[in-house]
Amino acid sequence: MPKSSKKKDALPDWALDPADLIYDQPGHFSIADAPNTIEPLYKSKKDYRRQLAQMVERIDELQAIMNAQNRYGLLLVFQAMDAAGKDGTIRRVLTGVNPAGVQVYSFKKPSDEELDHGYLWRIIQRMPERGRIGVFNRSYYEEVLVVRVHPEILTDYQRLPKELVSDTQAVFDHRYSEIRNFETYAARNGIRVLKFFLNVSRDEQRRRLIDRLDRPEKNWKFSFADVEERGHWDHYMQAFEDCINETACPLAPWAVIPADDKLNMRLLTTRLVLRELERMHLKWPEADERLAKEKSTIRKNLSND
Ligand code: ATP
Ligand code: MG
Questions:
Q1: I need a labelling partner for 177 at 20 to 30 A (CA). Which of 39, 65, 85, 241 fits?
Q2: 22-23 and 254-258 as β-strands: parallel, antiparallel, unpaired?
Q3: Can you spell out the DSSP letters for 94-142?
Q4: What is the DSSP string of 146-162?
């Protein structure tokens, strides 16, 4: 049996179809119905590691093909409440993929220079190139999440003219539409967009924040802002629900990942990244005509060199 098909067959066989976690049509997502935990897909930590390694190896292969083909790129967007595990998930999905094929960027509060431009300015500069996997740790979605929860950001921080933001609902409706257009534009130019919402529960977030207080080696991760934002939990959940319903479409779907079990979350996310790459029908480029014709002569000449 050829090596590659053996590996493919050995990919995890799950009762759950990870595609069930995908939202690719507007208006179908209900945060109240989205689970924070599901039946574990692994039997033990060893089994988790084995499944993860297998999938990452295949992602690495497909990225190499995507790079050789140089036609498509893939953008993975990660959004979540604090302590949901974005960093760890991104690390696990990508550890083992050729670092030259991956670009990761974390979007923080915009800088003064960034605030002098429209909100997509900083994003466009960080879009992955053809052949690469780009990862956004937070993204332009902050513009309809944190800004929706704190609309005063529009005037006080983003310095938008008052008359342009007097109707706040209209501002966010415009942003949903701009985001849909931007993602469609990317997809039509060969850059596919897959968006992840790591859906951690309020209780699990509390446990993780307390853990950051309790363990000295995790103290550095503790942020007062995270506790403050937690106070706006319901408002954030509404913002996530609306944003997913407004921006889920076949060209740029959302994946809503149960995030209370970190290992399960990483397996599901990795599987969905792999699924997206598999759907791209990537193929090694064919040898050009001249090479095809002259291959045997060149080989002979090189052997006799
Ligand atoms: P970690 O805490 O794991 O280092 P993080 O992504 O939480 O990662 P922080 O520096 O703690 O990084 O937080 C970044 C903050 O920047 C978040 O509160 C986020 O909401 C905010 N932010 C990101 N983009 C924007 C934006 N466009 N406008 C306003 N706030 C933003
Ligand atoms: Mg933070």
A1: 85
A2: antiparallel
A3: HBTB-GGGEEEEE--SPPHHHHTS-TTHHHHTTPPPTT-EEEEES-GGG
A4: HHHHSTHHHHHTS---G
Counting ligand 1 atoms within 8 A of each CB, the residue from 78, 107, 109 with the most, and so the one to mutate, is 109
With beta carbons less than 8 A apart as the criterion, state whether 12 and 41 touch. Answer: yes
Residue 226 Cα to ligand 1 middle (Å): 10
Considering only CA atoms, which of 99, 20, 21, 23 is closest in space to residue 56?
99
Lowest mean pLDDT among 80-84, 100-104, 156-160, 183-187: 156-160
For the whole prediction, is pTM greater than 0.90? yes
pLDDT average, residue stretch 143-172: 96
**Predicted confidence band of residue 291 (pLDDT cuts 50, 70, 90):** confident
Measure CA 284 to chain center: 25
Structural domains in the chain plus CATH codes: 18-304 (3.40.50.300)
Q: Whose CA is nearest to atom 12 of ligand 1?
A: 108
> Is residue 1's pLDDT more than 60?
no
